[in-house]
Amino acid sequence: MRVGVAAGRAGLLGAARPGSRILLGVGGCTGVHGVAWNLYYRLRPASQGQGYASELVRAAREWADRVDPERPVVASLLEHNVRSRAVVERAGLTLAWRGPDRGNPDPSAVRLLFADRTVAEDVVERLVGGEAGMVAPDARDEAAGPTVEP
After folding, report:
1. Residue 78 within a domain
2. Would residue 108 count as lying in a domain?
3. Contact between residue 65 and residue 88 where contact means Cβ atoms under 8 Å apart
């Protein structure tokens, strides 16, 4: 591993080079509606394109598999975000849903939902339905911060 990834409470991960105190990025999984783990990450601009997102995604999936392997791991992103799409596809997630990005001020925005396994239609609807969609974490999972898209 090129970066040290430390797991905190509720699947919050931080990435830094070994021996460095500079945070390269954060990521993890938060529970959504009690039916899935939402995979997220955010990197410093200078750290993008160097494989750190893939390392955070791998560590987050391992964490989710240890905590509750029955829940699917999903990633929600906008269709134009081709770099994030490549990261989640390399991690083994496949497209589970494509549709309008509800609540986005851009009416042409398209939201994609990727998953690590087949997700039932009713679960997909819970994840993408309504105004909130994936934004609100499941309170019982004590999410450690906001859910952000990869």
Report:
1. yes
2. yes
3. no
Contacts of 107 (CB under 8 A, 6+ apart): 100
Indicate the number of domains in the chain: 1
> Which residues contact residue 40 at a Cβ distance below 8 angstroms, ignoring those fewer than 6 apart?
27, 28, 29, 30, 60, 75, 147, 148, 149, 150
CATH number, domain containing residue 105: 3.40.630.30
For residues 38 and 144, the answer to whether their CB atoms sit within 8 Å is: no
- Residue 98 located in a structural domain: yes
* Reported pTM: 0.79
pLDDT tens digits, residue range 104-129? 999 999 999 999 999 999 999 999 87
